[in-house]
Amino acid sequence: MRLRLEPRREASRAMLYGTPVLAVALTVLAGILIFSLMGYDGLAAIYQIFVAPIADPYRWQDLFVKAAPLITIALGLAIGFRANVWNIGAEGQYIVGALAGTGVALATWDMQGYWILPAMVAAGILGGLLWAAIPAFLKTRFNVNEILTSLMLTYVAVQLLYYLMRGPWRDPEGYGFPQTRLFSEWQTLPTVVQGTLVHLGVPVAFFLAIAVWIVLSRTVTGFQVRVVGLAPQAARYGGFSARGTVWLTLLTSGAFAGLAGIFEAAGPFQQMTPQFSVNYGFTAIIVAFLGRLHPLGIVLAGMVLAVSYVGGENAQTALGLPYAATGMFQAMMLFFLLAVDILVRYRLRVVVPADLSRPVEARHPPARQAETGAHVSSTPIDKQRESLSA
Amino acid sequence: MTTAILISIIMTLVGAATPILLAALGELVVEKSGVLNLGLEGMMLIGAVTAFGVTFTTGSASLGLVAAMAAGAAASMIFAFLTLTLTANQVATGLALTIFGIGLSSLIGQNFVGRTVSGLEHIFPAALADDPIGRVVFGYSPLVYLSLVMTAFVAWFLTRSRAGLILRAIGESDEAAHSIGYSVIRVRYLAVAFGGAMAGLGGAYYSLVMTPMWADRLTAGRGWIALALVVFASWRPLRLLGGAYLFGAVMTLELHAKAAGINIVPPEFLAMLPYLATIVVLTLISIAPSGRRNAAPACLGKPFRATG
Amino acid sequence: MATEGKPPRLALEGITKRFPGVLANDDVSFSVAPGEIHALLGENGAGKSTLVKIIYGVLQADEGRVLWDGEPVSIANPKAARRLGIGMVFQHFSLFEAMTVLENIALGLDHSFSWRELQQRVGDILKTYDLPLDPNREVHTLSVGERQRIEIVRSLLQSPKLLIMDEPTSVLTPQEVDRLFETLRRLAAEGCSILYISHKLNEIQALCDTATILRGGQVVATCDPREESARSMAEMMIGASLRDVSRKPGTDFGPERLRVTHLSAPGEGPFGVPLKDINLSVRAGEVVGIAGVAGNGQNELLAALVGEIEGAESGNIFLDGVPSIAAHVGDRRRDGMCSVPEERNGHGAVPACSLTDNAVLTARHRMELASHGFIRYGAAEKYAEQVISAFDVKATGPRAPAASLSGGNLQKFIMGREILQKPDVLIVSQPTWGVDAGAAAAIHQALVDLAAAGSAILLISQDLDELLALCDRIAVINGGVLSDMLDVEGISIERVGLLMGGMHGEDAAGNGGDRGEPRHDPLEEQVHAA
Q1: The pTM is what?
Q2: Considering only CB atoms, which chain B residues are within 8 Å of A330?
Q3: Shared-domain flag, residues A258 and A369
Q4: Angle between the A146-166 and A242-264 helix axes, to the nearest 10 degrees?
Q5: What was the ipTM of the complex prediction?
Q6: Boundaries of domain holding B238
Q7: Tens digit of pLDDT for each residue in B115-154?
Q8: B179, B226, C450, C515: least CB-packed within 10 angstroms?
Q9: In a domain, A258, yes or no
Q10: Which of C17, C96, C118 to mutate against chain B (most B CBs within 10 Å)?
Q11: Burial level of C423, CB count in 10 A (0-12/13-18/19+)?
Q12: Residue A353 located in a structural domain
């Protein structure tokens, strides 16, 4: 008896929605196993990571605050991934967006007015967009792989952040700490729920999810993105420009990442520091895939990953589980998702060895034949051939 | 410029180039078989932490090296199983492997942060490396010589051996190779394992030779630069050698400028150099007319599933 | 079928092979004697390819047995087949474009040779069988005929006792076909059996001793092709009387609808063929054909006319007199130009998308399936339904993914989607490639009807029969250069063949026309028969 994969004629819808859940479940199981092997209490660790953040209503605001940037960035990335445009430098666009917004904040720190925050946000969007425009230009003009360029630019952005923090943008009254001055009240993101940390970025993330959903499912532009990703030649035949799609998707994902960046800076951080880069841009890649590149799925996946972040902090304080475990845990989720993904396109069949009606094969004991199959049965003929040709 | 500085520059250059060369050689073979493994950075980190951990525990750096290769290969097998057996998207899986490697290495490595090991023994007697010329020739870690031997080996393997011919053929057209009767999946598994072992070796260079002290994420994106080098080298081993030393030179510039206390350019901008250089070089190679873009194996990154 | 007590070289007994939803081979039995040239005749989808894959060890039969020299054998894989002495030349060559001829040959061998030895043996075979081929050239620089020779040499190096040729002539010029037949006859005379798979009746009559005819996975007859007429074999093959395409011979054409002047374009992809100074025109009601061996610029021509290459082309294209070279794909469609590319999956249609989405892909401009940037899914679904019913497409409905349709049905859907847009100019490439006979006839009829309604049709095809049956004028494309137009009335196949062989085919360089007996022209005969 063996397991065999048979292609399905149509992708299974049930599996399409079921596999992310299955992936999370498998990650939980593997997590229990691995943490136990490492000498921790596996069950307790999983409880801290996956259940405690949801069970404790006081942590819910943290979940939303963590999820918002993940969802915002992942929405942009998903548009690109659908079109086979692999922007994996969202982290860089996130940083540069935040830096651009911070630039506006620092230039206006002694001013007042409701226009300041919108100007910062606009600068943030523009910063992320321009940082993504570099790989877009290189890809469309010289056909340079966007994976490598967007990623390299992330490292450049991190150095740029360090430079600005240590040099020109350092808080003059900050006792030499490499960070900017705190943003003023005109420059910080308002909270939307009184008395919590839930800032404007949270509803904006949900609103963007709905907007992207509509664009992807109802408009010609969304259709273009889908078709370019599925069949680039058919897309050209249908009148969709490949170059235009690269520009569209990279600029959109850059703008979204930049928006998330300035929201994060003007919200939870309220200043810029060298610790600003916390790899949201990379985690968002996992969010995008776990959400099946679908806006609503991304909202759910963003919440799941936010749970793992908050839970990771829980486990760190409660069990001493190192924070690095969170990253590995998140990557495992993506591994399992990619692994079970095959069930969408293939169906798992249990194969009983075929009946042994064929004469040549029937000469061999069934057990052996089932294992080594055709190899064994062809040997006598080989010998015969060799003796003939000798 | 004194001889001492010159020698120091050359040795820094070779040192910076070697791990990238090792990892890139592995990736070159992987890509020649038609597989794009973006998990290089992750595998290097896993190799680095394994090498360090085993050396730290056993006191044997050679054992650490072997363990690093095994760990790199093992990590690559996750990638191989997902992409080759389960036909998962190679780009996504490679990214996952990198994220996984970063997480795993800092998880294991947290016990080692700040610890040191005695690095790899030199293979040539110290007397040979006494005078300046001798140092430049004989004064390196064994991994440096190994990287050169491996460059020659990979070049020979791909162009002169029958196995290399089959590997290239599978990267050119998996369908055709399958129809002739070659086992596409098996060859690709082997290639990916080789790539993983080489990446592990490259990672080990960082933790055993370059800085025999553990630090989180000590490869700092060099795995991605190695990936870019393969493109830069148009999938040719000897050109890879040149590319790696070119990047070594860029990184040496950064280090020596810092050490010399040159303040005209802020150090952060110097640290950007390797990444900016990568972008520039990738662009130049794409502009270059000579049809080099076509050097990419035709099946690179495409999933293969045997039909019939 | 065993001759004089000797067992047949190859005998199949009751071979059955099932795929999900399809019975590809149903109790197939026949045998091939030593030195016999045996035809396996059948339409696309009759089960020929499956059967051959079983013989060559690529697939395993579900039931039945294979006998080799009288002994039952199990052929586990192609390597085992080659060890028995079975060689195969595939329809789609298993070649590696970026590698040399010699490297390609080495890859096809099971034993390792030294290069020197291999070079020697390849040289011997090329000389013995008079096959012109340079072992050191890279494959992508070769003509299709030369590529086929690589496969043949590869097989001959193993000294095969049975050589399987799968649709070997589908991409050859008539001259190359002659040369191939000579080689095959010579091999047969030396005792090598040949299993010749084709659906071209005239070739089988010219070459084969015996023919086994397959239909729907079953053997319907085994006959001597020389004693049968082409028409009778065709009817056995198709299973019904041939339906002729009805068209009124028209010389009354309307005004010029498509005019192309000095069109040049770069080649697509690393091995593409650039177009050089193409000039042509098609009038209302006219069908103009572009003949040529695959890979001579056909794809580039379609792409340049449709506007797919995004401005890399130069020259001019006039649609009803309006210059359109600068117009985008969508604008050219709006102005009346529709098209059907050669490749269905991933070019003409998006396999993973529904038929409705595939309708939106190209019909949104002319059929108003989108407004203000939003897709009108209701209208799109209605249009898809319309195409499905008008062209008798077998599908579960407009929401079925394109990938769930058979090749012929998907092709009918694509043709229908373009034709129902009532294009002024329709450009189609290989419309019946890999399509069953029924669908092919329907597609041909639709093209003829569209022309009769006043559209101009440009038909790009490798199938000379198809071109001669449908077109009013024909030009040949070779190496990206288009020949002068020839009237189909009284056309010389010899001349078409020479043009197809063109610049890089060595056949056209003088020794093509006068080699051997004057070519009896079976193609023409078949056209008259049809």
Answers
A1: 0.83
A2: 99, 103
A3: no
A4: 30
A5: 0.87
A6: 7-295
A7: 888 777 777 777 776 777 777 777 788 899 999 999 999 9
A8: C515
A9: yes
A10: C96
A11: buried
A12: no
